[in-house]
Structures are given as structure tokens and as C-alpha cells.
Amino acid sequence: MNLIQAILIGVLAGIHTSTWGMYKDAIHEGFTWPKYFRSIVLAAILAAILLPVTGLDVTRPAGMVVFFGVVYGFERLTLELWKSFIREEDQSKYFIPMQFGVRGKPVYDRRIRYSVGLGVLLILIGSVVGVAALQRAYPDLPAWVVLITVGSLGGWLTAFGGAWKDAPVEGFETFKFFRSPGITLFWAVILGFFTENWLLIGIGAAGYSVATIETYKTFFFPSKPRGKFAGKPILFPKLLKTRYYFVPIYVTIWMLIIGTYLLAFRQPHSGLIAARSDVVQTLENSVSTVSVPSS
């Protein structure tokens, strides 16, 4: 049962990321079902792998919300590494190249890309091992220190990676740079109520940060092309209407996420943020108040 629910959570995470990606990109590069299902299949596979690794109980709301963020984070990381360092694709269709580049120019030499990609992967693995070792060595570190450092780490990595890729082409934007760390920290605080594991907080917060930022950029500014297609023509205008058919399921997933968080707060839970200060208690009381009462 645990495995089935984990895979279902992975499927929902995959649908979520596939939908915002399709909504903005399809009008420029077309829509295909295999591409749409790519993230869904990948997220489902990752969910099955990550379930025994994380040890989360995904039959409980607290475990569900943490697991969703972790799967989301790993799915995004996996695809971004593949797009940047492995995939072979014509970069001329993009305003901002998606392939690894230097000063906005794609690096076409596979040996260089693979070497840099391996280096990035080793740094990420080292970060995971390092964070796990730090938690074992300093288990009583104040929660606020953990949240500001480890909790927001994924956001900082995203910010620096985005600046490396985007800034040479469209210039450096201060708000855009600090947006990811700020939103990641917010989600880290939320996840801190449901798990004490520093890695799960950091990766899960990064996943939710991507989901939040992409929702904001995609659906609050639908007429503004994504950076990589800025200035590029709309080649598939019929999809401007077709893409709206996918919006209800996207909204439904967000409603499920919010509803599960409300349930998680109402039920007994524990995490890194264990001290029940007046502020924390007020927050939880507010969540309980807006929850739908049982009939």
C-alpha cells in the first residue's frame, strides 16, 4: 500500500511539472504525448526508488507532503542535468540556450560537457553526504540555523545555476536571483514541522520552490514567454486554446497539496521545529480554523 501511494504521489508530481512546462513551451515547440509523459514516468520511478531511501510513511498526510516535495526536487534535478549536459538538441530555437554553456554560448564538445556534468554531479553527491554527516555530528543545532543554511541551500544552487545560464544573455536581475532562496526558505520552514531530516527538508523545499515559482511565472503571466523563448515566434497558435484543457488538473493538484497540508497540521506531527512558541501555536490554530469541519 505504501509503495502504491508513493507511486501515485510521484505521478501527481510528474503531472504538475509536465503541465506548467507544456503550458508555456508547447506554443513554441509543439506538443507530443511522449514528452508530456516523460516527467510523469520519471517521477513515478523516482518515487518507487526514494520511498525506502527516505523511510517516510506516505499513508499519513505529514509524510505525503514531504515526499511530494522530495520527488519533485529529484525529478527536476534529474531532467535539468540531462538537458544541460547529455541531451543533444538544436539550441538555435532558444533565446537562452538550455545546454551547458559559457557566457551564454553553448558548449558543443561532448567531452567537456560530460566532464563538467560529472563534476556537478560529484558536488551534489558531496553536498548530500556532507549534510547527512553534519546532522549526525550536530543533531542539536538550532532549527533556525538549519533552515537558513541547509533549508535554503537548494534555492541558492538554483539561483547560481540560473545566473550562470541566464545572466550572460538577459542580464543579472537581483530580484530573480534572491527569489529562489527566499521561497525555498519559506517551504523549508513549513516542512520543518513534519520532518527532522535536514536532507528531506532541503530537497523538498527546493522542489516546492520550483513548483511555486513556475506556477507564478506560467499562470499569472501567461502572455509573457519564458526566458528561453523570449522574442521567439509562436509556431503553434492552436495550442493557445488547447493548453487550457490541462489547467483544471493542475489546479486540482494544488488543491490536493493544500488540503493535505491542512490535514497534516491538524493531525499529530513532529519535526525539526519542535518548540511550540506562541507564534507556532497561533499558526497551527489558524490552519485548523480554516479547515473544513467534519459533518
What is the total number of structural domains?
1
Mean pLDDT: 89
Q: Any low-confidence stretches, pLDDT <50, length ≥5? A: 275-280, 291-295
SSE string, helices as H and strands as E:
HHHEEHHHHHHH
Give a quick account of the main beta sheet: strands, pairing sense, barrel closure. Answer: 2 strands, antiparallel
- Whole-angstrom Rg: 20 Å
Question: Which short descriptors sum up this protein?
Answer:
295 residues; mainly alpha; two-stranded antiparallel sheet; 10 helices; disordered C terminus
Structure description:
This protein is mainly α. It has one domain (2-290). Helices cover 71% and strands 1% of the residues. The chain has ten helices and two strands. It has helices spanning 2-29, 33-54, 61-85, 110-137, 143-170, 174-191, 198-219, 239-242, 247-266, 278-290, and strands at 101-102, 105-106. The chain has a two-stranded antiparallel ribbon with strand order 1-2. It is globular, with a radius of gyration of 20 Å. Mean pLDDT is 89; it is low at 275-280 and 291-295.
What is this structure, in a nutshell?
It is built from 10 helices and 2 strands. The chain is mostly helical and 295 residues long. A hairpin with a 2-residue loop joins strand 1 and strand 2.
